[in-house]
Design brief:
The protein is α+β, with helices and mostly antiparallel strands. Helix content is 25%, strand content 25%. Strands 3-4-2-1-14-13 form a 6-stranded mixed sheet. A 6-stranded mixed sheet has the order 5-6-7-8-12-9. Helix 4 packs parallel to helix 6.
């Protein structure tokens, strides 16, 4: 089984590029999308040409903003949206599908913002989301796919020194949030299989030709419950897939 996570930076925009060709080539069983920037009906319309898949979405109240969606070959047992806390549940950031042996949670973690205006909110969000995951884990293991909007360690971004404690995505408070996940029993699958691999990123700024120079950040993750780790065969980043400022990341079970 193959599970893919991809921040598409607008489902309607990427649908007009090579998305469907890439989707077919990747051939995932579960495809988690973030930052759809569309309402539920618009997501359904953008993905209408996909046949033989079950499509679910969670859209923000604010139009053209945030949003998550999951495309699944297998019909899930149940589908739930959000984490049950009103202040965190208006932006379509969490979508959960339950399967026989695990939950798949698609997440688009809030960005702290260029002026760090949402850094405090982000910290509250990280803590609430971790509690939500721990609660799910009481039932069965979790696979958490998404854009976490943080580079966890210095190896996870091209220029750690000038960005540390200065830029959203590499603030100590955000790193602490990621530590809570990884020290709380969730495994960063890519780093587990590639502990020393540097210069492997999942997001690049559109400025200054960053992608061509590979001046990037690894901010997209697939985390799994520690108990589920023996099931994971490999983890990877698909740098060659274009169409967004992110690229897909994946695992195989």
């Amino acid at each position: 089984m193959k599970i893919i996570s991809f921040n598409v930076n607008g489902i309607r925009a990427i649908a007009k590029k090579n998305f469907f060709e890439d989707f077919k080539a990747i051939d995932a069983d579960i495809f988690c999308l973030q930052e759809t920037k569309a309402q539920d009906d618009q997501v359904a319309e953008a993905l209408a040409q996909l046949e033989g898949y079950h499509i679910y979405s969670n859209s923000a109240e604010k139009k053209g903003y945030s949003g998550t969606a999951i495309i699944s070959k297998t019909l899930p047992i149940s589908v739930s949206r959000d984490i049950g806390i009103s202040e965190h549940d208006t932006e379509g950031r969490v979508l959960c599908l339950e399967y026989d042996k695990f939950y798949v949670i698609d997440v688009y973690v809030p960005n702290s913002g260029s002026e760090l205006k949402r850094l405090e909110y982000r910290q509250n969000w990280d803590e609430a989301f971790f509690s939500y995951l721990r609660n799910l884990e009481k039932t069965k293991p979790v696979i958490v796919c998404g854009d976490f909007n943080v580079a966890h360690k210095a190896i996870d971004l091209a220029r750690p020194k000038p960005n540390y404690n200065k830029s959203a995505g590499f603030m100590q408070e955000e790193i602490d949030g990621m530590d809570r996940f990884t020290q709380g029993g969730l495994i960063d699958t890519f780093r587990h299989f590639h502990p020393e691999e540097a210069a492997k990123y999942s997001w690049w700024s559109y400025r200054a030709g960053a992608r061509g120079k590979n001046v990037g950040w690894r901010i997209d993750y697939l985390l799994v419950s520690e108990s589920f780790l023996p099931t994971i065969k490999k983890a990877y980043i698909l740098n060659e897939v274009m169409g967004s400022d992110h690229c897909p990341v994946g695992i195989e079970l």
